[in-house]
Amino acid sequence: MENLIFYLLGIGIIGIAYASWKSFSLLKKDEGNQHMKDVSSYINSASTTYMKTSYKVLAAFVLLAGVLLFLQAKYADGTNGLIAVSFVAGAVLSAGAGSWGINLISKLHARTANEANTSIDNAFKNAFSGGMANGITYAGLAITGLSVLLIGYQKFIGEWSLNEMLNAITAYVLGVSVVALFDRLIGGVFAEGVKIAKTEISKTEEAIPENTAVNPAEIANTAGVNVNNTSGASADMTESYVAVLISAMLLGVPFINSGEVMEYFSFGTVLLPLAMLAIGVLTSITAGFLVKSVNTKSFWTGYRFAYYFSIAVAALASFFIVKYILPTQWEMSKTVEGLIVITKFKSLGVFWTIFLGMAAGVVMNFSTDYFTINGKPVNKLIEDTFKGHSSGVLSGTSRGFIATAVPAIVILGTISGAYYFADFYGVAMAAVGFLTNAGIVLAINTTMPVAENADTLAKMTLMNDEAIQNTEELAAFTAKKEIYVKSLTVSAAALAAFAVLSAFLQKTGVSMIELNSPWTISFMIIGGLLPFLLSALVIDAVSSVAEKATDEIKRQFEEIPELKAAMDIYNKYFGDPDVPTQGEQDIVNAAEGKAAYDDLVVISTYASIRRLIILLVLMLAVPALTGYFLGTQALIGLLIGIIPVGFILAFTQVNLGAAWNSTKNEIETGVIWNGEKYDKNSSAYETAKQNDEAGSVYRNASAPALNLLIKISAVIALIIASAI
Predict the structure, then answer these.
(1) Which helix (H) or strand (E) holds 591?
(2) How far apart are the first and last CA of the chain?
(3) What is the pLDDT of residues 123-136, one digit of tens each?
(4) What's this model's pTM, rounded to 2 decimal places?
(5) Domain residue spans of the chain
């Protein structure tokens, strides 16, 4: 164990070093003219203001939770007060990665837009490099943090058993989860709230032109895109990443009692999950170089090739790693209802569980593409949108429901197959396989906010037509790829939750769920209800934040002299073919940078926190209180309700929102209907746009919240298992 863990730590450090080198290389590039630098500084300031504001509350939240964990450990067997250290370490590293990522990504918009002056290829490579730096940072820090904790606990607390050590490290997952709550849940509500506020202002103040830095809503919206799709999505995926890792390590502990395992490679079943994710860092870096080597016409092919290449290499590597770490076969015995049952395990079976997880990711990609991007369901939805608003809503809803069938079957098949090959350990290793290439997935996801905001900045700073055409094409392309990641994060959340549940069942020794217990049945119903209540509260919070943000934007236009003067000129020439005089244009130009962008962000952030803070506490408290006061069976019932219902509801919302978004994008670029071409100037586009506004809340705020609910509930159960 001693040697391998240091090698794995080294790979984590290599990942961080690669990300740092990539980041500093990007930041050396030219931001363009002074106007581009100015607007970029507004975006950067607004983005970091959100992080500073939310992290102030996060710090207090982490401190309080850390104290409670320390006290809980005093009264639980098999754990120690250092569980609080693991929790704080997870929170600090995840928050550090989020701050670093936001700071980097918000500085790349101008640099990417400036690269679009030369070619779309250069702009793409710049945006994707930023995504790689962000994705590998999260993956590298996760592996490094866990490796350091394992080494530290082993060296300085040698009298601990391996089980006690891993129990303490379990809280690392919770630390990452708490940060995900602030970055993904609160960040998602903030992002959607300011986005709706921007839309509302454009309706009530129609004279304000699109894409102007005079409008504080534009800058706040770019900050929201950064927060939700950089730190938010990354924290969500990293939470799954760390949860499956810890679960698989815990489930591997009993195998150490097998003489074959211990003699072949000490602690092999415990270190195998960490080794797989370390390999994933290396394959993701390699795939990143492949993506950047393609040209414009091959973007789509390049993305797919890099993703599948990384999976293929990781699958091949996993075969040899499993053979190296695990014996060909071994036996385990356990007592079931007074009888000793002997089960045989094979290293080849463990490999197949990893392969099943990887294959599930590939199938999810094809399913998402067919149902929500390029397949017949989207084409049918486009046709129905031309028939009217009601037809578009009903058709989209129907397709959102239908599209959930494939992911549900894939997850079911993956779990069943993995259990067949290697029991609950196989379930966790399948989840490890699914998330092995999380680095490249996060890179693909983070490319989107860079590209989208580079396009916005290019239009704000009135770049030439060719550059704007390049940024528009790049933004449209990366938006499609981001839909894939939304589906993968939901699937990852489901597999992570089932992996953690498997570890919980092993830790508590529960071999049978008592369906005749009133607590089990009652809490299955309560667990099934919670995802719907959470969605309702999140959607309501978005509306509330949008209202607060809209009021603040209106106040700024009414009270800030420079903005008021610019508004007078906008109103004067609205609908008039004439253009402002040079003096009037100077007044408009002088209004840029005068809006209180940071004030708008702070108000919207605190509005998001106020609406959700009680909800965050309940998400953590409900499973804990259920387990402490009502026992294991009630807690299991709660999890059985939350996990499958939350997963299916989240996928429905992602698919529904993605299908409406694809419909809007297709009509915007131009489609043929009854022999005529329709584009963004048509009534059908307005219908599709309205549907997408609702769908955006589903896929960017509500569905991610459900991801967090199902994972956090399972993680809390695992942490308190020793105490109940």
Answers:
(1) helix 582-591
(2) 31
(3) 988 998 998 899 89
(4) 0.91
(5) 2-560+595-723
